[in-house]
Amino acid sequence: MTIQRFDAGPRMAEMTVHNGVAYLAGQIAEDASQDITGQTRQVLGAIDALLERAGSHKTKVLRAQIFLADLADFAAMNAVWEGWVVPGQTPARATVQAALAKPEWKIEIVITAAV
Prior knowledge:
The protein has helices at 36-54, 74-84; strands spanning 3-6, 15-18, 21-24, 61-68, 92-97, 107-114. The protein is of the alpha+beta class. It has a single domain (3-114), classed as CATH 3.30.1330.40. β4 (61-68), α2 and β5 (92-97) form a beta-alpha-beta unit. Belongs to the RutC family. This is RidA family protein.
């Protein structure tokens, strides 16, 4: 049984890969001063980069869990999301409102993808 850990630190890894599945940690925006549109773009860019490192792609995303600090941002987040996903290749998805670890974060996304 092989488990690959990417960017593992004392608390967590950014991604683990096991048995052909990539499990991404919650991804947040690097620049939290941006609005929901900017933060969502940043998060999806980080997801793209991690998936590429694992030898995967957004078309192989199995499940997305989206955490929004404010559900008022749902429509704006969806506008960015719908521009990112590939039609016909959309994953199972859940979106909930949640208190995120830092008040300036507007979105966090957790991804599970096939490799």
